[in-house]
Amino acid sequence: MDLKSPAAFDMLRRMVEINSFTGNPEGVNRLGAFTAECFAPLGFSAEFVPSSNPAWGRHLVLTRPGRSGSSVAMIAHLDTVFPPEEELRNHFVWSVEGDRLFGPGTHDIKGGTVMMWLVLSALREESPAAFEAVTWKLLWNSSEEEYSPDFGDVCRARFDAGTLAALVFEAEGRAGNETLLVAARKGRGTWRATASGRGSHAGGGHDRGANAVVQLGRTVQRLAELTDYASGLTFNVGTIAGGTGLNRVPHTAEARGEFRAFTPDAYARGKAALLALAGPGDVRSPADGFPCQVQVEILTESRPWPRNPGTDRLIDIWQRAGRELGQPVGSEERGGLSDGNSLWDAVPTLDGLGPWGENDHCSERSADGSKVPEFVLASAFVPKALLNLAAILELIAH
Length: 398
Ligand SMILES: [Zn+2]
Description:
The protein is of the alpha+beta class. Helices cover about 30% and strands about 30% of the residues. It has a six-stranded mixed beta sheet. It has a five-stranded antiparallel beta sheet with strand order 12-14-10-16-15. Strands 4-5-20-19 form a four-stranded antiparallel beta sheet. Helix 1 runs antiparallel to helix 4 (about 105-125), helix 4 crosses helix 10 (about 380-395) and helix 9 packs across helix 10. Bound molecules: zinc ion.
């Protein structure tokens, strides 16, 4: 089978050479236009959907209508976490060293986009009838790295009763030589806790004060203790700030953080326990008992993607295809989010279909080689494309 690898690597290089940091909408849009160009010869037409946040680029939707009522969605994102200044500072650019293809987004997730192209090109060549039968819907999030709140709706609006699956092309995991697909991902809520006390002179009126920093210290201590590894629930206190001067009993303090859980149950329990920390605090003014007040707000939420029968059925299909090809395939549950979190309850969803690489979100290299930036393995593309191809043929045959 000819998978046109040189063309694929050239495509990947050109994608990596376009800076598409989430906060660089011009670059994200340029990558979107180039991606549409890459898929046009396969018969895809493009739609550019503005983000709900005007500071971000446009989502990309490519469609190729098929003859049957079945459709398959493939999902990736355009953005990366690397600002142009950081790429310059760390001289983090496309470079090939042996089997390693270094560069911003090689692993997360431009390698995944090229994987989509490889699979569809091979499918058109190997099984033109199957390729033409299915409607292919390819969707790229412009702002996945910033937890875009609207992309899930963009996808769901384009799914219908004939949509067989949403296939997410984030990179695969590995255990030895076993390919690990993603079967579940934690949900994530971000929060802000604010303590309001009563300011006073730290010399003359110390006992009149209700110290908001002390209150918040107690509150975040309790909050951190809500972590329960046994049920996969974690709380992280990310930032804390409060007070304005050393001679004042501080009247306000604020902490921010997040919590994560795999199951909707554990997530809901964690959220309820977090919100229950709000109310009158236990730090009071010694003079008259004036209490601090604690406020807790949820800032953003991305729902958990728990283990579910739709995803498990897709994993079975990929495992069967792997056995036929002599490629061991397993699955894992990941703590990090992807677009799969907002899709799994609309259509069966599988993630981890991209190639294998390492060090995503890292742009630095140390002189002794103990730290290298993000890369993807060139040799990982063809075997994974063959696996995806065999599994997709099986998926659309039924
Ligand atoms: Zn990603």
